[in-house]
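Why do we care about 3D structure at all? Because function follows from shape, and shape follows, mostly, from sequence. That is the central idea of this module. The next example makes it concrete: a single protein chain, its amino acid sequence, and then its structure expressed as tokens.
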Amino acid sequence: MDAPPDPRTPPEARGRVAALYQEHALGLVKLAKIMLGDQAAAEDIVQDAYLGLFRRWPSLEDQDRALAYLRASVLNGCRTAYRGMTRRDRALRLAPRTGNMVSAEESALIGEANREVMAALRALPARQREAVVLRYYLDLTEAQAAQAMHVSRGTVKSAASRGRAALARMLKEEM
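And the structure:
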């Protein structure tokens, strides 16, 4: 069973975490969905990240950096979920989807034109996929992406560059 919130959690923590949830939860779910290819797992990971934030609110060194904490927590949750998948699960979740295997929601969000891009993005190695999504999908700076990924700015820069080049090869177009 999960541990209860820290009894030192101040009353305003609920409001601050709720405001962060309203403003950023959808984007974080989209991030996790891109990383994993599974909507339900993405939603679970984001919920766990917000719960973890609420529980740790009193011990956060800088509460203004709560969004960075959430991003890092979501990426860590995605990495853990990805490691827990079997090779077959990974192949099925990251494979391009066609026909009636695509949910109506995914079709509405992604659209036919972007389906190939999403499949190519899911085919990237995890670090490249993370860097590309954080830099170009969430429009984070190199420093913010590095903080979320727990790597250096140079690693983000090279992973994003390699990821973009691989996407260009897969999509047969120049970026």
